[in-house]
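[audit] Reproducing an earlier prediction to check determinism. Same input, same settings, fresh worker. If the tokens differ from the archived copy the diff job will pick it up downstream; this log only records the rerun itself.
[audit] input (454 residues):
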Amino acid sequence: MTTTNPLDDAPLSTFHKKLAVFSSGGPFLDGYALSIIGVAMVQISGQWNLSSAEQGLIAASTLIGILLGAFAGGWLTDRFGREVLFTLDLVAIIACSVAQFFVEGVVWLIVLRLLLGMAVGADYPIATSLMTEFAPRKYRGPLLGAFVTMWFVGAAAAYVVGEVLARTAGDDAWRWMLASAALPAVLICVARVGTPESPRWLVSKGKIDKANEVLLKVYGPGVTVADLPAEEETNVGVKELLRSGYGKRMAFITLFWTCSVVPLFAVYAFAPAILGALKLEGDAAHIGSAAITILFMVGCIVALLLVNRMGRRPLLIHSFVWSGLALLLLGLFPGAPSAIIMVLFAAYAVLIGGSQILQWVYPNELFPTEVRGSAVGLASSLSRIGAAIGTFLVPLSLTSLGIGVTMLIAAGVTLFGAVISQMWAPETRGLSLSESAGLGQTTKSPASAETISV
């Protein structure tokens, strides 16, 4: 039986709810920044006479920045703590966003988008580590999984803001679009001020008195570092991470994360082209693209309701299997009636939600406090490489191989994720962080895991 602990089994307090909202600001800004450039690019291309290569570099620079920033942010938060960096990265996002308003020339825009991406990417391991180390075990999965949902909220907000500015701001509309990310970043930054440091991180650095001060502030009198579950002594640094017993866990997370995001990023980025190739054109393609975006969000919300009821492992496997079958049918029958095509795309968008939310749950649960940020950052960076390659190859595949083969490849990647999950996915539902992260602990099987409802 899992032992009761005043921190792991604490009720969901106002502090936890506020921290969840403030922490999810990073994914919101990620979705906003990556989407707003697509709207702005229409006007920028005309004014600056951009080549296809220049457009591609501007669009890709943010993704490259996220790749770099995620690992750097993870290393920095493990070394210097979560608290300071939790607001410092937002300051960088604000500065880069405002600077874009005054930019002149392609090179400087690429540089600023790169720096913006680095700041956004750095926030992922910082915010998720902090949220993980405060969240009660009963709510940890849903709270971390909600981060992905906020990505789609940010993307939707960007399209609305972009459309409004395009109609009202004249020739400088694109400047206002790119600078507009500063407003939500300022609000999130102000809200984050005063967030306490993780007591688990403080203890890992020997700062016991400060850890007790944080515990008193958050949980009230009577809770001290003695109530923190003892973590297994790992002495694992960043360099030793892949050579330690955590190497297999890193391989699992990187592979399943990549298998999840490669088809999704490709479908999301090229939905109009893909739907057009499947004989849905004009308004039908635009409506279909918007509907798919909404359904991705719906899928994440459904998965949040299931992550504790089903458990991590079953949810991940089912998500890959059934979404992969939807893509497989699209590949086998690309000439099916439009209604069938939309149903299959809708099924994929909803069913892939399980693997999406677990991208932030598993990495934070499977690594100890001293390397949690680094592990999350490294996994995020490695998965972005696959996503970037997959997104780059989609238009080439559509042109040279056709829509049917393209969908079959996407199905193969997704179903490979199911195989990896069947082989390596542990069940961490109901475990404390010390239990799920310790190499000496065996994670529970789905059959033995305690049932928890939210």
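[audit] rerun output stored. Observation attached for the diff report: The chain has 19 helices and no strands.
[audit] end
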